[in-house]
Each structure stands twice: as C-alpha cells, then as structure tokens.
Amino acid sequence: MTDTIMEFIQKYGLEAAGTLASLIYLFYSIREKSWLWPWGLVASALMSVGFYQVALYADMGLQFYYIVVSIYGWWYWINGNAGKNNDEVSIKLLSKQLFLKLTIVGIVIYLAILLVLLKVPAMVNISSSELPYLDSFTTAASIIATWMLARKYIHHWLFWVVIDLVSMGMYIYKGLYFYSFLYLVFTAGAIVGYLEWTKTVRGYAKAV
Fold first, then answer.
1. Domain for residue 87, yes or no?
2. Spatial CB neighbours of 139, under 8 Å, sequence gap ≥ 6
3. Count of structural domains within the chain
4. CB 41 within 8 Å of CB 26
5. CA 196, CA 34: separation in Å to the nearest integer?
6. Which domain holds residue 24?
C-alpha cells in the first residue's frame, strides 16, 4: 500500500499539487479576491516543471510570464484604486479599439513563439515540441488574457473559455489527466466568472 502511494506521488504528485493550487486560484478569481495572485504564483511554479518534463516548452515559458504578471496583478489590485480597499479595483469593459490592438499583439506573439518552438529545440539539443501550433496559440492567447485579468477587463473570461478548451485537448493528448480535468473545471469556471463579473458590472450601473 505504501509503495503504491509513493509511486502515485512520484508520478502524479507535482501535477496534483499544481492542480490544487490552480483551483484555489480560480476560486479567488471568480470572487474578485486579490488572494488569487499568490496562489497563481504557486501554481505557475509547479506547472512550469511539469510542462518541461513533457516538452510543452511554450506552456512552460508561459508560467514564468504568469509569475511576473501575478506580481503586477497583485500590486494593481491592491493599489489600483487609491483610497479604497484591496478588492475594489473596478471591472472594465473591453473597447473595440483595445480589442483590435490586443489581437495584433497576440498575432505577433503567436508567430514569435511558433518560430522559437520550431527552431530552438534542435539548436539546443532538447526534445522538439509535439504540438507547436496549438502550444503557440494557447500561450499567446493566455499572455493577452492574463494581462486583461491583471487590469480587470471582464472579457478575459471569454478568452479563457476558448484557451481552456484547446488546452484540455492538448493535455489529454499528452496524458496529463489531472491538468485535463483542471482545464475542464477552468472552462466551467470561466463561464461562471463571466456571469458573476457581469452581475457586478450591472451593479455599478444601478449605483450610478
């Protein structure tokens, strides 16, 4: 029995821990609590190791971006509205102009990541990425969506619905079943988060 538990921990422990931290992160995201950011830091640190082990290099690199943005997001959510408490940074709506700018930036990031995934592994003698096009897409889109979350744009939730569904398929293919389940929960959570934040925005309108 002990051997079985140890074998499970060795095989799935890192993935399970990253999944748990990510679920706590999702809970606080939906609730608009700034505690989401430190849990995001923990989840990203754990997941970066796991993605390296299965040669999802863009996803691995994305975790380091998450760490940086989590520090920024934590600061912004606490200090973004001077004189208010740490959970009162206002939710913002995404304008057409900003959406266009983010789309252009996202395409540039996607092409840059794709080029790296197609060329660099052979240059440094590591395993090539098995899913470079999907890996690049989810990474580029996640960079944009995480920035939107840090700035508290409500439409980041809609981005995550698409990102999480594609990511779930990737992780099933790679045999990362904890993360596959996690991203199924993330998809449902993104829908719930959008609906909850929409209620808050309507509350703003009624208060005016």
1. no
2. 58, 59, 61, 62, 109, 110, 113
3. 1
4. no
5. 16
6. 2-82+93-207
Report the length, in residues, of the chain.
Answer: 208
d(CA 157, CA 20): 20
For range 46-63, the mean pLDDT: 80
Residue 111 carries which side chain, given as an amino acid letter?
L
Give residue 166's pLDDT: 94
For the stretch 123-170, pLDDT in tens is 766 666 678 899 899 989 999 999 999 999 999 999 999 999 999 998
Q: Which of 63, 48, 29, 45 is nearest to 152 (CA)?
A: 29
Residue 86 pLDDT? 43
Residue 61 lies in a domain: yes
Q: What is the mean pLDDT of residues 48-55?
A: 80
Average pLDDT over residues 39-47: 91
Q: Give the residue from 146, 163, 20, 125 showing the smallest Cα distance to 74.
A: 146
Query: What is the spatial distance between Cα 32 and Cα 35, in angstroms, rounded to a whole number?
Result: 9
CB atoms within 10 A of CB 72: 14
